Amino acid sequence: MKNTYLFVEHLNHNCTYINFNSKIILYIYRDIASTFFLVRVPGKHLGAANNRGRKLILSIFAARDCIMRANIWLTRMIQCKEALVSVTSHRTSFLAAMRTHTSRLSSPNTRNYSMIEFDFIRLLKDIQEFKEAKNVDKVVVLWTTNTERYNIVINNEAEFSPSTLFSLACVLENVPFINGSPQNTFVPGLIDLAIRRNSLIGGDDFKSGQTKMKSVLVDFLVGASIKPTSIVSYNHLGNNDGMNLSAPQTFRSKEISKSNVVDDMVSSNAILYEPGEHPDHVVVIKGDGLVYFRDIYGGTNTIVMHNMCEDSLLAAPIILDLVLLAELSTRIQLKVEGERKYHSSHPVATILSYLTKAPLVPPGTPVVNALAKQRAMLENILRACIGLAPENNMILEYK
Questions:
Q1: pLDDT at 129 over 80
Q2: Cα separation of 189 and 119, whole Å?
Q3: Where is the Myo-inositol-1-phosphate synthase GAPDH-like domain (predicted)?
């Protein structure tokens, strides 16, 4: 087995070289009794991580005005500073019909440009001017808007969703772009362009609540040789999310994102499942701000969970972690023994998969949705960044 070496560029331009096969381990021993205990270290203590300095948040509306306008929190609970305000790309055809009345964006006079060309030129200019005006080292763009309908992928078709247009501008400006919504923002041509330009992209769809529970449960059941035959998700959404997803064209994006989260775990057990066999999987959107209970009986082994999640609260730390990990990924380089030069990791950032429902992976790469495996991957990469060997949980010194 060849050694793999890692190179991390720090923001202060110091460099760290790490050998993956180093003998350093994270086990901590206390006194002469060699008592073993687990240590959890915050990610912000990672030497190469960007946790210092000012971080600017850009939005189309001031944060307080946006929350009050959407009527998602009580006014007395709102204590938000204003975010920086910017105009963005807008296509009503990609919104659910009931959402168009809440849009406050207008189409400017584009003169000699098509609307798509005008938006694209403006986005490129906005990124360049923002970076220069705010004197920031790096820009990271993270998409958090309502679910768009699916892109129709046809060669030479002029259809561009706003999120695809944003990601294209970011790829050309070499700015990391993360898709926090479920639609197919990363069409094949865009992925190919990002790979050729070595510009980081990642996604899709925040993994904030129910999906985590589902992936953990199915991984446990299949690993214990208990065969799940049916998975039904009743989603009671608030913050206008349920209203947006009640439209068939936007619901399809979310349905695909949620339905594929157990595929790799099911296919891993050929004893339980025949080739091509999988559990019946139904995703139901039960409107906006509803509470719904249903008891299911009939002699089968049934797990019924009431998991009350508030996505606005759960997604906030995920947004921050995605931005920090994406920025860190742009500074990590590696090489295999025998290679002469360090090179960056693949621009399709699988390191973000722990935080996303439908992980974007390079072409030909297997998709991993099992939460424990995703977390182990992320932890081992961060361990390598500070010179520690990957963890395997064998603890051979106690065997």
A1: yes
A2: 19
A3: 209-312
